[in-house]
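Teaching assistant here, posting this on the class forum so everyone can see the example we discussed in section. The complex has two components, and the goal was to see what a joint structure prediction looks like when all of them are supplied at once.
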Amino acid sequence: MREVTKVYDGAVTALDRVSLEVSRGSFLAVMGPSGSGKSTLLHCAAGLDNPTSGEVFVGGTAISGLSEARRTALRRERIGFVFQSYNLLPSLTVQENITLPLRLSGNDADRQWLDAVTDRVGLGPLMSRRPSELSGGQQQRAAIARALAARPEVVFADEPTGALDMDTAAEVLDLLRDLVDEFSQTVVMVTHDPDAASRAHATAVVADGRIDRFHNAPTAYELARHLTHLRRSRV
Amino acid sequence: MSGMLKPSVSMARKQVGGLVAVFCAVFGAAALATATGVVAETGLTSHLEPERLAAADVLISAPQRHPVPEDLDLPLTERVTVPAETADEAAAVPGVAAAVADVSFPASVEGADAPSEGHSWASAEATGADLDGEAPTGPGEVVAGAGTGAETGQTVTVATASGRAEYTVTGTTGGPGLYFEADTAAELSGLPEGEADLIAVALEPGSSAKEVAADLGGVLGGGFEVTTGEARGDVERIEGGAARGELVAVSGSLAGTIMLLCGFITAGALAVSVANQRRDLALLRAVGATPKQVRRLVATQATVVAAVAVVPGGLLGYPAADGFARMLADAGMLPGDLPLARSPLAALAAALLMLATVQIAARCAAWRTSRLPATTAVAESRTEPKPVGRVRTTIGLVLLALAMGQALMPLFLPGEGALASAGTGTLTAVIGLALAGPALVKAATALAASLLPRRSEAPAWLAEANTRAYSRRTAGAVTVLALAIALTVMQVYSQTTVERAAAAELEDGITAETAVSAPALGTVPAGDVDELAALPGVDAAVPVASTTVIRSSDFLDGTDAESFQALVLGPGAEHVADPRVAEGSLADLEGEAVAVAASTAFVWGVAVGDEVDLVLADGREVSATVVATYERGFGFGSVIASSDLVGPGRIDTVLVSGDGSAVADWAAGRPGLEAGGAALGAKAPSERWINVAVTIVLLGYVLLGVGNSLVAATVGRRGEFASLRMAGATPRQVRAMMRRETAILSAIAVAAGLAISVLPMSLLGLGLAGRPWPQGPPWVVPAAAALAVALAFAATGAATRKALSGSATGLMAAV
């Protein structure tokens, strides 16, 4: 994304001329204190929201400035999402939830790929259950499988471990990391948890609508210190 | 309660959609309840203004009611008389200037446009009537009042119930009607010797009406009513009292339906509101709120909304009552000048009633959620509560079976019983449907989904999955839609089927060729009937009048009395009418005799040859022999009384069998008479329109409720829409999914609604009219279904569009 600015209600500048490039097959974490603009960054990068100015490209295609319908079509083919609250549809089985994006785009499922993904997330015996019959970790793994179903160019994860306990969170992070390593999947994850961010290849720390610093393979301690510093300097 | 007020209000702010539904439901219900209350209060307390006797400060009359122990008294529809000599006793009371016996009877000038009434000049004079000319002093003299068109010195022919005679107009007066010399008036009135309608009392200047009335009451003793002030209007014109009785009855029967619907729809709106708040309520449970506190919170929330809604609702109720009263007046069921009672009592009662309803409904709606263990409550917060109670489904199925049984009753039960059974059958079925709904919807969705054109597109597939998974939510929508369709179909067709049955019975049952009536005279003069009978070519001329009779019966350990429509037929009835006699013979309908409809005879437990004790419309108690029973009870009414039993009086129509053209020629020479095809006016068509109008108002309210709950339910699905949008669904796909869901639930609702209404109405048609389909305009079925379906699509469509507006992230954030 290039020189992206997002202004809300003509007054609040959430993103201020941010440029960022994520290379294929890498795992980027985005961190920052509350209100730093990290969620807006994700929304603009994923085409959920149109930036006020600047351009966003996914795999070489510009998605900024397109209509909502065109962006939706592009999103479901090239981008996968994972949310803190899973966002599975309670009326569908796990299997149906995972194949939903494919059904919505009218594309045929790549059976081999789907089998590989469902096998990897380890929900085999639970495929015909409904989300309400699953634990949080299981639901999030189903959501990850759904995000991957269409073989997207990039998966955006918004606080994917925010609602999970430590052990389950670790499992989910392992899964995300493995996807990057095994399937060369590109993943961008927004988080406030330095531990989670330390599992990524790189971490962008956002503050006041700009990228404050870029860490390559940081430790959780480094990140925590940086964040604490940011918090202090803002007071 | 105050402890729960703050959290409930702040929670309420967050989920306005569901509470708007509650607001609308309570608003509509409060308006309807207030309007009903105004009508009821008018019936209980309002009075017609005294007119002709306005100058009589006190009126003495007999009670115009038949007392019923432990129930509302039945109004008597014809004048209950008092002894004329009561006037002398009253005149002796200090403070009384004059007390005069007053009578009223049909008396019209030939050639006048409208019928008028005759009175005694003495009572007019005593109550200060003006006079231009001379007072009548003998049999051939009359004072003509306003509206009769006669002038002093003219000779006019006056038609009364007994016959036609010529009178010289000696003077004119401003009051309405014709005024005769006292003895002439007494004779023309047809009352027994020494009887009068009422005693009009004029006071000496300076004496108090209240005090004199009290004295009069003391002197005369029981059996008399002494009336002063406004209430005199009801004594002067008894139709005012009768109309008030009617108002109480109408509002009473409406109140039940309205309360049922209001409860149903308010509860529905609350259920949606609670469902939308399930997550918040679950969290409250998790942080330590007791089930009772959760229920109280929901109840408080609903009560606050209801308290706001009852104010405009109550205010709207008053103009609504005005409209209803105007409708009744146009239909001739209510004197147009009866003022409506507009006290705040009606709105207050409606408000209290609604608040109580909301309290109970809210607690019921929150019962399940509040009782779940806190952990389950949180887990359940994203999906529907799982198991649908087996007891609930079983009770629902039992009720549906019961409804089926009730629907079949018209094939075995005659008359009114069939109607009642078919009507309640539909209501039973609606409740059954509400209970067994979720289970049935699961089965029906599978069926509906397989019947609808098969498509594998994502929206259709999602819609089917949703309908199945949310069978309870779907069932709720299906039930209200089906209720709207079923109620309309049932209300309209039960009405029209009975009308058709009555019309058909009358058409087949009147064997006379000609009917003679006298719309401009108010009665066919008895002399004319005799002339008709003597006409060459005429076989029989039978006078017909309609009246009511009251029959008391010992019911369990008390006495119950009921009023019945009755037809009065003169001798020779068997030549002009064939009510399909089951036992006995109409030829015996002479003297103190009645014929009784077979279904009524069955209920009364009487047979031909038995004596029945009846109270006539003027309060006289008589004992009559049952001489026949007949089957055409809808057309001819429950009772046919001989004219000998009822005595001379008004004649509405004369049924004539024989040479029709001779009758027509004869009638042409009799001013005021009209000869036409033999028919008896069935029930006034105006009454039907009142029923239809009331149905439309109620249907409007039901549809409001339906739209309400659909909108609220759709708004409550924003989270689901957001998830779908995140998973890559375009807004168009989400809308397509919702349309498909609406199509499925509409299909089920139409099928269910028609099944529980068309079926019983067809059986009713078979039972009453011999034709196995609903008797009435056929467009009602598609119209009711189309209206309900259009509403479902409009409400869901608009709400979906609203919920999807804005960007996907906005949708996410709003959840």
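For the discussion questions: The longest helix of chain A spans residues 166-183. The longest strand of chain A covers residues 2-8. Think about how each of these relates to the inputs above.
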